[in-house]
Amino acid sequence: MLTLAIVAALVAASSAAPGPRMPGLALRFGEPVAAVDSTHAWEIDVKAPKGKVVRKGPARFFGVPADVRLFFEDGVLARAEAKADSVAPAGLDYVRDQLRLAGFQRSCTIDDPDHEQCAWTGRAAVVTLEIEGLKLSATVERPAPPAPVAAAAPDSAAARADSAARAP
């Protein structure tokens, strides 16, 4: 009986283990609210939609001081947003360089010298980064699961030949 209890505890612990690190933050996807609350003086976001768990507070995003909001789903960390005004150009370059060095691929919808809006896609996260002048806005979340691949329909000529061969 004791062995069964130990196995059940190990399975529960492994299924609740946090996931990969959130790029730019000292947090992991899947961390429970209590674990995140113990890392920092996060405040409860009273502007959060009813029934949603959201924390907010000052933190560093890739070393840049920012206002951060953390969003939880089913009691675990699922997404983060960071906003910063008056970021030095070197700080903006540092954020881009860190994403590039971590292997993230950049895809931009706006790529002007004074305004860029890019999705940086990595193996375990997507960072949507908007830089306008010296303002930075970022969203960090898990990538969407891949869409299921539908089975290919058989070639109509091959299907007719196959059914003709089976006919008596």
Task: Give the overall shape.
Answer: globular
Task: Give the helix level as a range of percent.
Answer: 25-40%
Low-confidence stretches: 2-15
Mean pLDDT: 84
Spatial strand sequence of the major β-sheet = 1-2-3-4-8-7-6-5
Number of helices: 4
Oligomeric state = single chain
The amount of beta strand, in percent, is 35-45%
Structural class: alpha+beta
Report the major sheet.
Answer: 8 strands, antiparallel
Written overview of the protein:
With 168 residues, this protein is an alpha+beta fold. 26% of the residues lie in helices and 35% in strands. The protein has four helices and eight strands. The protein has helices at 2-15, 33-37, 89-101, 156-166; strands spanning 43-44, 53-61, 64-73, 76-84, 105-112, 115-121, 126-132, 135-141. It has an eight-stranded antiparallel sheet. Strand 2 and strand 3 form a beta hairpin.
